[in-house]
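User: I want to check something. If I give you two sequences, will you return the structure for each one separately, not as a complex?

Assistant: Yes, each is folded on its own. Here is the first sequence with its structure:
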Amino acid sequence: PLFVDFTAEWCGACKKMAKETFADVDVMKRCGSFVAVKIDATNDEDPQVKAMMEKYKVVGLPTVVVYDSEGKERKRFNDFVGAQDFLSALEGIN
């Protein structure tokens, strides 16, 4: 399984997720079975950043897209999500 985290230096909700959600011990344990990719979209004028945002259909930040091991999108977050809600969303994704 994979999750892709789109973030930016200017994104307050992204910073809150980094500090409160992704730093949570239980989230870190659960995410150990995932490939985690972090996309820094601070410079959204960069052609590579634009291409990644288009590929993953990102319209705002933060965006976290979760895929199962078959490559199927299973969950998408388009705003801050707390640790418990994030963990609940990952249940059953292998």
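And separately, the second sequence with its own structure:
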Amino acid sequence: MSLPKTYLLMTSTVTTDGELKMRLAEKQMPTPGPDEVLVRVEAAPINPSDQGVMFGWSSMDKATSSGAGSDITLKAPVSKHGMHMMKARVGQDLPVGNEGSGTVVAAGENAQALMGKLVGVMGGEMYAQYRLIKAVMCMPLGPDHTAKDGAACFVNPLTALSMVETMRLEGHTALVHTAAASNLGQMLNRICQADGVQLVNIVRSKAQEKMLRDLGASHVVDSSKDSFMADLINAVHETGATLAFDATGGGQLASDILSAMEAAAARTPGAYSIYGSVKHKQVYLYGGLNTSETTLSRGYGMAWGVGGWLLPNFLARVGQEVAGRMRARVVQELTTTFANNYSDEISLSDALKAEVVAHYNAKKTGAKFLINPQLPI
């Protein structure tokens, strides 16, 4: 097939004068090397991790857009604090979009097996009409799959699977998960139900609690209730969970989870010690939905930890065999366990309209946006 000479790529820049600027940059169409493929990107989700690169610490409530089509520009002011937090990226045109899917339209001599195939891709720069990438970074999808099915086949599915792998690797037997009504949270529920893993889901509304219970979740705790801590302690005691993954990052929630684990352990006869429970309690922060400081109110003994957790770091830790096994499961269960629901499908230029940004940047449960770079600009 005949390819255009250029394509559009979304970039995000923080200028020296304190402004975020996002635009669609025109790039020359590349030619694949021996081990590379050129993918026509047909679907790419907007995940919270993408928005971290797109917007950073800018004041998105004051964002404006100008121009139209390929000439559209999104701008937002950046405070002095924001400039300090983003000083390492000032002046850099950062391409955005962690993952996506599309059709291989050109391939190097060692990658001809992927020619014409629909693939999932994780490698950055996916908010673009085309993406040149190493063939090894592609996940071939099934013959019945669509680009929409495979758009988010890396970040959320592998993160959810890796949470369970982390649990087993570190000697825990059950999990606690926050922001549990999210697409990722729903995937994790399906995995845990299938694999017989006890899971405590923390949500923030009655509606979210009902949704998860309708999906078969046994332990759902609503943080908006006055009984939250009592309910959390009971759920942790019933499951024996000593490992948690927290998507909020800031505030008191990580500390509350550790306190609940300690209180649950204290119900076990003979477990008391002036140093707290012997079993190690661990909370991993893997998101930043709450951008305030993480507050720890020490009251859970000495056998505990709070740390950061990133999917790429975990995959590097466990190696290709484990990663390959997880990827194979994702493809096999892509439209069941790892199915995604999208509320909106938008073009590259739509994604830079201030009024559209306001909707997907709100990160509301049930509002998940998909960029289709092949839609008319």
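Because they were folded independently, the notes below concern the second chain alone. The two ends are 21 Å apart (CA to CA). The longest strand covers residues 19-28.
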